[in-house]
Every structure is written in structure tokens, then in C-alpha cells.
């Protein structure tokens, strides 16, 4: 393990992170909010060590192996979580540091589960920091999964359908920087568009920016206690629905569109299934709300579509209290928490591609039961998926379900009712945010015990980093000094 | 597809099945019960077509391929379910034929979910038939999975850890008959022992026989409305606990013990994990009942052990109303419905071996993340598991979870609450029987809509035949006339 490289990179990231913290600080100064000192302290505590690390471990030529990359990713998430919690803690808007950490991890992982019962009394600067953690975390995830991991040979951990104009072996770093910058631009354009539209639809400018950050990152934090229900505006819901759906798509598709300017990039199985799932669920749920719960057909479809998009993109916004809906719609939304959006997107969950692959593998297996000698290969968008990648998808599915189960048992142990406990675990692991019942969209996680919050915090991180990154660092081999490869 | 062979075998099975129906008929005659005519009609309707088929399609030398074997298995389950429902229907103890079918499939698949609210008013002959379906179904499954499927080259669909003294290529049929007869003997000895012990512990002779059938098959039908709670007897609970645990073990282990007479057969990872899971769950649940629900420590452990053994072996007996227990214990028992017992046993669920393999694969995968060039093979009890088998286990896990999800949505659609719906689907798919809430151990499935009963019936069959058998016959290739292999 090349420690100097790791520390140098982490130092640089801390400085950048402190720079990001300056944005809400400047807002606090502009609005004259009392939270200025909280931010100032946080910026200093984050920035100074970062600056010192950066100076001490200058690394002009980066020599990062797979392990160094893992260490940087794990370290960055750890540091960003711990320092990002400082503004909440210093401002004393949460009772304990664990609560502040929960809120920050929930932000950075784009989960959007909150422990703050009344967010409307928070200073605007803290609200902005809250949304900003979503936005930064979301961008970090896209860069990690589209740019860094494939470079580190971990591309098959996820599966890209769209052709990523990825780095070749020579001149690696410049190309990586290129791609990352293109992704940033796309992300920025989406956010700006979303903010402008929300502003023009009647939100205040700051609310529009906050909700744009939250929407594009599939986060779910709102500046209102009643979430999107507060606005009760069809226009706002439609804008948010559109951008939630947009954010659940593989950003490599946008990248290809950006570079190649051809509509062919949309010929993507995962994208098709993603849109079909939202449409199908919206229709079924709307039917259920119309016939069972007596909503008007317009209202039923409006909220059904919003909630389907919100849960499948794992944003977790609520335009209605879906925890009060008929149990069938609840189980569909519960399932959506597990499925999630596309690989290479900001959304959480298991990701649709993995379900497509497993379904195809199951079908092929049935076929083989009858024609044992026919070897059929699994293809996705014309690409053959090798057995090892397929195995990895199956293993990931298993790990995910088992972690969900263990977390559910733990959450039930803290006193939640069975289904509520399961929904809390699923919502944390899938980076969705709200669950059902005691952790439903009209409540917060404030009432959960500290132990329960710790479990959910771990789930959010495990889900966000797709297990391997986080689990890897617990293995003794990871820490051995010398490596052969 | 060789139709004559299939029809000939099915005819022979129908005659045997009609013979089994004569047992409760004889009891009805002996006790002078009014259900005699119901049984007589059923025996005739089952036996006569069977006899005619048998005579018409005499097959001295059986030429069964994989497809013929699948067709026989599917046909046998279908016919046994439809004709087995006749006694209930003729006796008019259920409102519709669908209910009778549900009760029979529940019996044959060793699920033990009942639609009869008051079983204590049933004639003894019908109660015996009910338990007998468990016993016959359980034996059928053991023979299918230990003897027939491995012969048909489908051995890797499941996984045997214990060395099955399996058939070699020459003189196949005599050896198969040998093994099947040995298994029958073991099964019979267990049942007789269980019945004798229960009788001596205070049950009436008939109740003891019924409960022995039900226990050894991990079925769960009782002759009492309050199930095992009715007896409130520590002795009876301990006897049943012992035999439930016994029945969740791979019968290939008993077979090896029977033939080789060495204790080495117990050195089996799955067996170890199976016992460890029961012990661990019993302790955790007992702790929860003691500290949270205020039971005495003795009572807490007594019921915790019984329920852990009952749910992991997927018997589904209840010595207490576990649906009223703390939510954490409920989720543990819910998880047990998915895990199930050992492969090659009578129990349902996904089976422990599959979990062990998936866990090992996940661990190996983590290892490979750090040492990408190290190829480590997955072993179970010293045997290397090839990638293809591993893949199949992952696919089975996926299919199981997805079927559970879809069935949960369907059950919620019939009006059940979310967790109740999920537990009904899990209990049917895992061949457990009772779930939680509206389908808990103190209630029956009588109140479920006919559509819901149909869904659960299908789930019971899918779970029992482990998908492939049942799904296979829906594929067009299956029905094509000529096959090359
Ligand atoms: K979210
Ligand atoms: K059962």
C-alpha cells in the first residue's frame, strides 16, 4: 500500500471539500445567519489538515494501484462523512454527533433519510449544505463508477451497457480527467435546468436550488417538512418527476450523447426496462388508488407516477403519503427500493441491469434443463456476459438480500414493527430514504435509537459503495504491505 | 416424448395412490364414519382410470429420458392433487373444489396451510387422509430428489454433501429400487418411533399416528385447531422438536449411516450449520421472550426452541402464537422460512447448502477483489463446486426471491396487510404453512380469496418442486416430439 499517495490524494479532496463548505458559509454571511461560526469552524477543521497533507505528500505522478484506489475511496467517504457532520453538530440542530453523522451520510450517499423533525426552522445555509452533500455525493458516485472503477479493472463489478468512451492504457490520466469533466458538465447542466424550471414554477430561488441539488442526485432532502406535498403543485411535481427519471439513467449514455451526438445511445435495454417499470407501476398503482382508495383518476395517476419514479430512481420524494396507500402498492414500491435505477446513474438499489442479467440467466438455465448440450451465452445489448461476471452479479444479489435481512432483524430489535423495520433497512441499503410506517414519508428517523441509526448509517454506505469497496478494507490481505501484482 | 411410458407409469402411480386412499376408508369403515362413501367414490375415480392406463400401457422395460421423467413428476403431482382433493370435496367439509385442492396441495407439498377452520369436527378418516397426504408427499420428494433426479443427470440442481451411495450406470433400475426401499424403511422407522413416543406421551393412538405423519414429513397439519398448543405438554413438544429437527436433515446421511454404519457421515457442514442455526435462533428468541415479553426463562426457551426448529425445518407447528412475539423474533422466523432445512430432506425453503455456497462464493469474490489473479475454488465438505453449479444456485436464489416478491404483491392485492401478505407468500413458497397476522398460527387460510388461494397453491408447488420441474413443462421445447439425446 502506497500510503503517501493515499494521504496526498485525501488531503487534496479535503481541501476541495472545505471549499464546498464555503458555499453555504458565504450564504450564511450574505443572509447574516447565526450559523456562520459553525461553518467557519468546520471549514477550518476540514481544510487545514487537508492542506497540510497535500503539502506534505506532494505526488506529481500518481501511482495508484487497485488497493490505493480502494483506500482513497473508503477514506474519502469516511472523512467526508465525519467532517461534513460538523456544521450540524456545531449549530446544535441535532442532539448527538451520531445524529449529525447520520444526516451527513444520508446526504452524501444520496439517501435523504433525515433525523431533523423540523427542517423549516433551520438556517438557509444549513439547508443548502444538506442539499449540497447530496449533490457532491451523487457526483462522486458517478465519477467513481464510470471513471475510476473501470480504470482500476473493477468495471465488471457493475455492468455498463452503454459504450463508455473509456480510457485506454496510454495517457490514462488526461483522458480520465476529460471524462470526469464532461460528466461534471452534464451534471451541472441538468442541475441548472432543474433549478431554473423549479424557480419558474413558483419555488423561491433558494428552494429551487436546494431541490435541484436533491433531485439530480436522487437524494430526497427537502427544505420543507412535508416534502413535495408542501407545494401541492402539479407543475413542480412534473418537473421533479422528469428530472428524477433523468437521474436514474446511466450517465454513460448522456456522455455518449454529448460526445457522439447520435440518438443510437438510447437503444439500451436497461433504459427501456427502467422506463417500462415506471410506466407499468404508475398504471397499476393509479388503478389501485382509483378503484380502492377512491382518488380521482387524475390525482391517482399524478401521484402514482410521481411515487413510482421517486422510488425506482431511489429519490424518495413524496407527493403524497404513500405509506397510507393500499398494501399492494406499498409492496410494489418496496420492491422498487430493491431494484433501483440504472448502473452508472446516481440512484441506489441493486440496479436494473443486474435484474435483467439474472432473469436472462434464469431463462437460459431453464432452456438448458431441456437441451443440456446447448450452451447458450447471455447477452446484453449485443455484448456477451461471461460466466464470471454473471457469478458476481448473483453474489452481489445474495449479499444485498442477506445484508437487508440482517439489518431488518437489527432494526426490529430496536423496537420497530416488522414491515417498518424491513422498509427502514431496504430504504437505507437502497439509498432511498423514507420507508413505511414509523419511518414513512411524513415522519423522520429522529425517533430511531442510536444503535438503529448506526446500523442504518452502515447500510447506506454499504449500499452506496456496492459492498465490495467497504467490505474489502476489513480483510487482512488488504493491509499487507507488499504486493506482487 | 414417449407418451406410452409416461401414461403407464402414471397409471401405476394412480393405482398405488388409490391404494393409499383405502387406508382412511378402512378406518372410516372400522369407526362407522359417514365419510365412507366419500372415500369409496374417490378410490374408484382414482383407481379405475389408473388401472386402465396401467393395463393399456404395459412397459416392461422403462425407457425414460429426462423429459419423460419431468412429465411423470409433473403429471403425478397434478393427478395426486386433483384426485386427492376428492375426499374433502365429496365430504363437503370445504366450500369449493378450489379449497379442497388447496388443502390437498398443502398436504402433498408438506406445507400444512389449512382452509378448514374447525378440524376437530372432521371424521377421523378425513384427518388421517390429511396427514397421509403429508407423509406420502414427503416420501415422494425424498425419492425424487435423492433417487430419481440425480439419475436423470439433474443431480446438480440440488447439492449433495453426504455421499449418496448412488446408482452406477449398469443395472440402474435394481439399484434405484434398492435405494428407494432403504429410504422408505428409514422413513417408516422414524414415523413409527415418533408415533409410539407421542402415544406414550399422552396422545390418543390416532392423534399420535397423525402427528407422526405430519412431523416426519415436516408437514404441520394437526388434528387440533390449536395445533400443538392444544396439548400444552413439554414431553410432546420435546418429542416433536426432536423429530422435526431429524426430518430437516439430508436423508442421504441416514442412508449412508444405514449402509456404512459409521459416524463419519455426520461430519457434514450443512448439518452443522443447520443445528447451529436452530441453537442460535432459540437462544436469541428465548432472550427476547424473556426480557421483552416477560416470559419465564424456562417457558421462553421451550417455545423458542420449538418454534426455531419448527420454522427452520419448515414444519410450521406452533407451540405458542409466535405471530404475537416481538418483531425481531418474527423477522428471524420469517428468515427461517426462506432458509429451510437441508437438501435431500423433507423440508422446504431454499435449503441451507445453497446459503453456505453463496456465502462462500461471496467471500471468495471479496478475496479476488484484492488478489485478482488468485483463482480460488469453492469447496463444500472437500468437494469442489464448479462454476456452473454455483451459477445455478445463484439463479435459483434469484428465482425464489422474485417469485416470493410477485406472490407477495398478488397476496397484498387480495387485501392482506403488507407483512401478512409477504409471510403468506414466504410460507407457501417455503412449504412452511402458517405465516403472520391474518395467516398466523392461530388462524387458517379460509378467509383468503379464491384467487389468493390459487396463487398460494402455485407457490407451494413451485417451492416443493424447486421451480425447474414445474417451469420446464411451460416451455415449447418440452413438448416437441423428437429429441436427439
Ligand atoms: K434517495
Ligand atoms: K410445513
Automatic annotation (TrEMBL), chains A, B:
The chain crosses the membrane at residues 9-30, 36-57, 69-90, 135-160, 181-201, 234-259, 271-291, 331-350, 393-413, 454-474. InterPro entries: Cat_transpt, TrkH. Its main location: membrane. The keyword Transmembrane applies. Keywords: Cell inner membrane, Cell membrane, Ion transport, Membrane, Metal-binding, Potassium, Potassium transport, Transmembrane, Transmembrane helix, Transport. GO terms for cellular component: plasma membrane. K(+) binds at residues 110-111, 219, 314-315, 431-432. It comes from the Bacteria. It is a multi-pass membrane protein. One of its GO terms (molecular function) is metal ion binding. It is found in: Cell inner membrane. Signal peptide: none annotated. Pfam families: TrkH. Belongs to the TrkH potassium transport family. This is Trk system potassium uptake protein TrkH.
